[in-house]
Amino acid sequence: MNVVERIRQNCARLGGAPALSPYRGGGADVSYAELGRAVENAARRLHELGIGPGAVCGIMPTHIMLHVPLTLALSHLGAASVALRTVADADALDLSA
Question: What is the 3-state secondary structure of the chain?
């Protein structure tokens, strides 16, 4: 069983239980039911855009609460995702040392 299948099972079994909790910037928890809907909606839209098995997609979500559903949706479609950092994130890293 892969992670997408496990999340799908948890969505059906745990419904209102928290699946994601924001670690920065506040905000409310996301339930398994909400996560399941977000993944299905994202997968449907990505499929409409032509994303499917074997595709490699760069994603640069502005918040972790968007990153997780996008990553799971791409995996559900058989695509791979590469997380891209924003310029602000790159500036915060000190790679000179």
Answer: CCHHHHHHHHHHHHCCCEEECCCCCCCCCEEHHHHHHHHHHHHHHHHHCCCCCCCEEEECCCCHHHHHHHHHHHHHCCCEEEECCCHHHHHHCCCCC
Give the C-alpha separation, 53 to 60, whole Å. 20
- The pTM (predicted TM-score) of the whole model is 0.78
Q: What does the pLDDT read at residue 2? A: 78
> Which structure tokens are listed for 31?
């339930």
